[in-house]
Inverse folding.
């Protein structure tokens, strides 16, 4: 079996940053190492927002990744002392702390440190995702042997983490994945079904279709999502459409794929059903942008007049037309006293991040003038994505130059255009993405 993570197997290549750091003779300075740990934790937490942010491009992600890599290198250079400092940060655990500790334990070859982190998964929300991202961050060279052990472990969680690591590196775990799809453990089954779509395993399409009636909701979602990426345009799309019409944890992902596949009438039916409930306003606005139908452009411009919806409506307008509103000076200043995200008032119960933070504030009059002057160059009854009809060349260009939400959409389109194409991981370390993009070109 070729997992890509065992001795003697090909690795993915590494940048000058994505390397193992050798120990130095000098004794580490505690305050310096602690600062490296603290800064790495903060940057990892920031990164979790940036990978799906509407205003971040690969260039920006790369700048943060260079800083994060430098701090992780600082921890690694300190050897065992650095590992202990990273573990000490787990006294107040969060996703950033788990990520830094996991990277340190793997680089130092300390299985006991990983075992401690594994034991935290059930008690700490986000711990599993942080562990997975640590495996995704490290080079294949750093993971030799470790992932193979996880894939062949008896515990479902270990297998799940091993499969996630393979998916993040776009490496096929082989027969392990086939068996995991039939596992009695629902979380393992769900992760395996997701991996089938991520890796473009068309041979597993029948298994994905079979699990559309799985008793576990997460399994049905990932079965439908993967089946759609792998080429199913019948039952899988019907299920994704159904999931997109009611509140559930997987609604947005289901809506995004369904609207990319449905024809104009089908998309209009979905959006019409969403429009019946005012609580669906955000999903409706996002869906209009994904559908790519010029029919919705006048309505989107009208929504730009609403301060609560203006930025999201502007993003959907850009998703259809391909415009950078800020670059073309089609934006305006935010309202006075506007605060994005949670404020410093301890009495305010709203601690949620502003989902539209970073998006420009479009000027409705300027946007309308632009549309009136340029509408004629768009063809009715055509699906538009970033101002053009959907094509492989366009998707590759968006992956190189677009914002993260646009890049995520482009990655899905590449799979839908040619089922069996592995899903481009837009959350991978920037230097690895650049290497993958050079191969796509």
């Amino acid at each position: 079996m070729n997992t890509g993570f065992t001795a003697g197997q090909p690795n993915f290549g590494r940048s000058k940053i994505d390397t193992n750091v050798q120990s130095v003779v000098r004794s580490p300075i505690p305050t310096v190492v602690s600062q490296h740990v603290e800064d790495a934790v903060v940057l990892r937490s920031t990164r979790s927002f940036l990978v799906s942010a509407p205003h971040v491009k690969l260039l920006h992600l790369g700048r943060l990744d260079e800083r994060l890599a430098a701090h992780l290198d600082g921890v690694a250079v300190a050897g065992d002392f650095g590992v202990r400092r990273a573990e000490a940060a787990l006294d107040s655990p969060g996703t950033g702390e788990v990520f830094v500790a996991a990277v340190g334990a793997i680089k130092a070859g300390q299985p006991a440190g990983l075992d401690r982190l594994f034991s935290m998964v059930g008690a700490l929300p986000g711990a599993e995702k942080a562990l997975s991202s640590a495996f995704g961050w490290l080079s294949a060279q750093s993971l030799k042997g470790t992932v193979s052990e996880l894939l062949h472990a008896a515990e479902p969680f270990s297998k799940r983490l091993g499969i996630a690591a393979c998916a993040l590196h776009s490496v096929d775990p082989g027969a392990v994945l086939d068996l995991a799809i039939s596992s009695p453990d629902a979380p393992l089954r769900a992760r395996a079904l997701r991996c089938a779509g991520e890796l473009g395993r068309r041979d597993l399409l029948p298994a994905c279709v079979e699990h559309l009636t799985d008793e576990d909701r997460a399994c049905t979602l990932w079965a439908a999502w993967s089946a759609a990426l792998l080429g199913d345009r019948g039952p899988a799309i019907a299920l994704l459409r159904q999931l997109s019409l009611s509140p559930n944890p997987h609604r947005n992902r289901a809506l995004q794929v369904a609207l990319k596949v449905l024809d104009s009438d089908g998309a209009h039916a979905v959006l019409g059903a969403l429009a019946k409930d005012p609580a669906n306003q955000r999903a409706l606005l996002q869906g209009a942008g994904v559908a790519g139908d010029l029919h919705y452009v006048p309505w989107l411009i009208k929504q730009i007049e609403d301060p609560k919806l203006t930025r999201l409506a502007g993003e959907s307008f850009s998703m259809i037309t391909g415009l950078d509103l800020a670059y073309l000076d089609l934006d305006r200043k935010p309202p006075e006293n506007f605060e994005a995200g949670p404020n410093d008032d301890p009495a305010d119960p709203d601690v949620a991040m502003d989902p539209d933070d970073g998006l420009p504030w479009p000027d409705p009059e300027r946007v309308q003038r632009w549309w009136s002057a340029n509408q004629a160059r768009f063809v009715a009854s055509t699906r538009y994505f970033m101002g053009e009809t959907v094509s492989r060349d366009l998707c590759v260009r968006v992956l190189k130059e677009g914002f993260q939400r646009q890049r995520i959409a482009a990655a899905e389109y590449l799979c839908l255009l040619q089922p069996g194409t592995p899903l481009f991981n837009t959350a991978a370390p920037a230097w690895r993405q650049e290497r993958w993009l050079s191969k796509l070109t």
Q: What stands out?
A: The mean pLDDT is 91.
